[in-house]
Specification:
Blueprint: H1 15-21, H2 24-52, H3 55-72, H4 76-91, H5 98-120, H6 128-167
Helix pairs in contact: 2-3, 2-5, 2-6, 3-4, 4-5, 5-6
């Protein structure tokens, strides 16, 4: 599921392409595409755990995923995302599906950001195609996970409203 994270993208060997396509934003997009693929699939699985209806399993998945995210990289984004997912996984004991919604939404946003950078840069680089493929897979998986989580939140809200109205 996870790929070789520490490797910076290599360039295609063209003199003008190597100067432009080894930009920090392209290198970050290549590395972030690995994150998006791995955690996009994880976000989908986390959302599907809610369909199965095992809240403790979902909370455990959320806590585990949040720890992996916090240790993934030293960047502030990953630490904050890990903490937020952890908080919502704990709150998920009372309001289920929040952790998977937050994780799926964040990965979807990161995937869109990565695809935007790859659209502008690095087409001649040999890492461009696999990075784009990884970003697309992760973005689609997290998007499906977000749709599942939102649908479950909506159904939960409808069920709670029906229960409350039935007791009046």
């Amino acid at each position: 599921m996870f790929e070789n994270y520490g490797i910076a993208p290599s360039n295609s060997g063209q003199a003008e392409a190597s100067a432009h396509y080894s930009s920090p934003s392209f290198n970050e997009a290549v590395n972030a595409s690995r994150f998006v693929k791995g955690f996009g699939i994880t976000a989908l699985i986390y959302s599907l755990a809610g369909v199965v209806g095992v809240p403790l399993l979902g909370g455990g998945i959320g806590l585990g995923v949040s720890l992996f995210i916090m240790k993934y990289d030293q960047a502030k984004y990953y630490r904050i995302l890990g903490i937020v997912v952890m908080v919502f996984a704990i709150v998920g004991a009372f309001i289920p599906f929040l952790g998977s919604t937050v994780l799926s939404g964040a990965i979807l946003g990161k995937g869109i950001q990565v695809l935007s950078v790859l659209e502008k840069e690095g087409r001649n680089d040999e890492e461009w195609t696999p990075s784009r493929r990884r970003a697309i897979i992760g973005t689609i998986a997290s998007g499906v996970g977000l749709l599942i989580s939102i649908a479950l939140l909506f159904l939960l809200t409808l069920g709670l409203a029906a229960m409350l109205l039935g007791q009046l």
